[in-house]
Amino acid sequence: MTTLAARRLLLVHAHPDDESIGTGATMAHYVAAGAQVTLVTCTLGEEGEIHVPALAGLLATEADQLGGYRIAELAAACAALGVADHRFLGGAGRYRDSGMMGLPTNDHPRAFWGADLDTAAGHLVEIMREVRPQVLVTYDPNGFYGHPDHIQAHRVAMRAAELAAAEGVGPAKIYWTAMPKSVLEAGMTTFAESADNPFAGIEHADDLPFGTPDEQIAAQIDGTDQHTAKEAAMRAHATQIPDNSWLYSIAGNFGNEFMGVEYYTLAVGEKGPGVGPYGWEEDLFAGLALDVDPVAAPAGAVRAPVQPGEPTPVVGTSAEAGVR
Hints:
Rossmann fold; alpha/beta; EC 3.5.1.103; zinc ion binding; 1D-myo-inositol 2-acetamido-2-deoxy-alpha-D-glucopyranoside deacetylase; N-acetylglucosaminylinositol deacetylase activity; single chain; globular; two-stranded antiparallel sheet; 16% strand
């Protein structure tokens, strides 16, 4: 039995580097504040591009060793963010990067896109039993921008939360990563005359495959004091994010705010106190009654469903209960 931190955050991402780009400041912010931060990555990112010419032989179409290399990149990124608890869903290599939507790689026997939903969710439930997160972060139903692995990560995370809730160990709040349209519009205005405009050819924020109306945003996490940690984590993913990436260009123009402020919609749970015209939360744990000296079950333990306010007993191991 292990005593857990009072605040426990679980993030489910599709590939190495997704965690740093989308939620790096949030993760570093909560680690620095003493929260338990657990990252689950669903694939090794085997189908990614390579922006380091000397490593081109690692490509999926060549030696097919990129996934193994990206394990080390992810470890370095987590170290930069201070995240000590990182897992691969079902173990490293259990699920393979599916590639972009519609490619033959979607049909690979291990492609995450084709994974059995309940089996994959079962792997995540095992982690939830152990760490008992109050807050879960993942993508929206479109995977933020439509990548099949992001969509599947959403499905797996939401199904796992449903299964865990039936056992009394599900998260109280579930957030989806988001980008306010006002932020996108500000970026488009700033870069309109730039030679390295990442929005070239886009006239309106509505033309992008992502972007959320400001009134639908639930939380804005200010991790500007962690912007250097986020940038270091992104630079750890050197095969995926080149030194001249537009991400760093935006960072140079917007500074700490771009690197340090991240946004979310609330999919499950009650919204806590917030600020500003739309009442954006400043804390993902806002409104939650936090545990005092909570105790985790041993790894593999299954918990019986309980009523709110009652202690959560451990009733046996997964092998004894016949549960994955």
